[in-house]
Design a protein that fits this description.
Elements lengths: L8 H8 L19 E6 L7 H11 L2 E6 L3 H10 L8 E6 L3 H6 L3 E2 L23 E13 H6 L20 E4 L5 H14 L4 H10 L3 E3 L2 H8 L14 E5 L2 H6 L11 E18 L5 H11 L2 H4 L2 H5 L2 E2 L8 H6 L11 H19 L2
Parallel strand pairs: 1-2, 1-3, 6-7, 6-8
Antiparallel strand pairs: 3-9, 4-9, 5-8, 5-9, 5-10
């Protein structure tokens, strides 16, 4: 997922990749050395050193990682440099940006090994294989269990619930124009209420006191009352975050609690799917294909949950107990076709900004 830290910074900073991986190889363009393969990604990419080292040893390639800001910025740079890319493989284009990348011709077709173990519902470019699904997650409203227990009030479960007077002034969300979770939450409301109904929903949500901040970290760590990193200083018991945020709140806690201190309103979720692809014009195409195979390998896929707090794309990848015990499975998240998002995204953001921020 793509543009912000997905979890509380204090509890899991090391796990999410907030400390940058050292770039290997020469400082020049990606793949200039046949033994070096370059991965271009957003800032939230991370992998265990042991897992990466094993690939380097087995393949003979040295991996160089270039992080380019949030997903939107990284994708924009990939488009601007198409045909003469910064690297060989791109990681981190999601379904909110996918059609734009495909339309711009950023990727070369390649069917990665292991794709047969990826559910068809995640393979949004199944016919041409220009991109490979690598992980998925859900943007959902999270709630502070302690707050609702103290006030003897049930937390919301759905988009409709958020409009009820009992939740007035409780929700903080991110700006759709500046934040991937914020945009995903807006897209969730569009999928739920349709192109003719989502603006009416947001008018009601604004009237019910929703607060908007620039990004996830501010929303979750500063404003949300259930954030461990925020030490309970926030006064908003509802926040737009990830379905995987509750397991992240438990990571490292001893003794382990019976349940996570935060929960998920399962009727407010929007599915994000993250992809990787071989960049067109890659200087080390052979190495790029080997790297894509690695990203879809069981070894990397099973490393994904505790490194980036998202779900592996492969069905046969084992998910850690932290996820199964404290996480929430979203059975029917809202979705929108990538081409619909691409066609309307900028207009929707402008309409949202005019409606909510003024």
């Amino acid at each position: 997922m793509s543009t912000t830290s997905r979890i509380t910074a204090t509890a899991v900073a090391a796990a999410v990749g907030m400390s940058a991986l050292a770039a290997c190889g020469a400082p020049g363009g990606g793949g200039a050395d046949a033994k070096t393969v370059t991965l271009v990604s957003h800032d939230s990419f991370n992998v265990s050193k042991s897992v990466l080292s094993a690939f380097e040893k087995e393949s003979g390639y040295q991996v160089r990682i270039l992080k380019g800001g949030d997903a939107g910025k990284a994708v924009n740079q990939a488009i601007l440099s198409k045909g003469n890319p910064q690297g060989d493989v791109f990681f981190g284009i999601d379904n909110t940006l996918l059609s734009r990348g495909l339309h711009e011709g950023v990727f070369s077709p390649y069917r990665a090994k292991g794709l047969a173990d990826v559910p068809a519902g995640l393979q949004l470019d199944k016919g041409e294989h220009r991109v490979t699904p690598l992980d998925y997650g859900d943007i959902c409203v999270n709630y502070d269990r302690g707050y609702f227990a103290r006030h003897k009030t049930a937390p919301p479960k759905s988009f409709d619930d958020l409009l009820k007077p009992r939740y007035k002034g409780m929700l903080v969300t991110e700006n759709s124009a500046t934040s991937s979770p914020g945009l995903a939450f807006q897209l969730g409301t569009i999928a739920k209420y349709g192109q003719d109904g989502w603006q009416s929903y947001w008018k009601k949500l604004k009237a019910n006191g929703v607060e908007v901040v620039d990004g996830w970290e501010q929303a979750y760590n500063d404003r949300f009352s259930g954030s461990a990193a925020g030490q309970g200083k926030g006064d908003k018991p509802l926040v737009v975050s990830y379905a995987s945020s509750p397991p992240a709140e438990v990571l490292g806690k001893k003794p382990a609690p019976k349940e996570a201190p935060t929960g998920v309103a399962t009727g407010t979720c929007f599915r994000q799917i993250e992809f990787g692809g071989l960049l067109k014009g890659a200087k080390n195409e052979k190495g790029g294909k080997a790297l894509l195979d690695f990203l879809l390998s069981k070894k990397f896929q099973e490393d994904v949950p505790l490194q980036m707090f998202v779900n592996p794309a492969r069905e046969d990848a084992k998910v850690p107990e932290l996820f199964t015990k404290y996480g929430t499975t979203i059975g029917k998240p809202t979705t929108l076709p990538p081409e619909t998002i691409t066609k309307n995204r900028e207009q929707w953001i402008k309409q949202w900004s005019s409606l909510v921020l003024k």
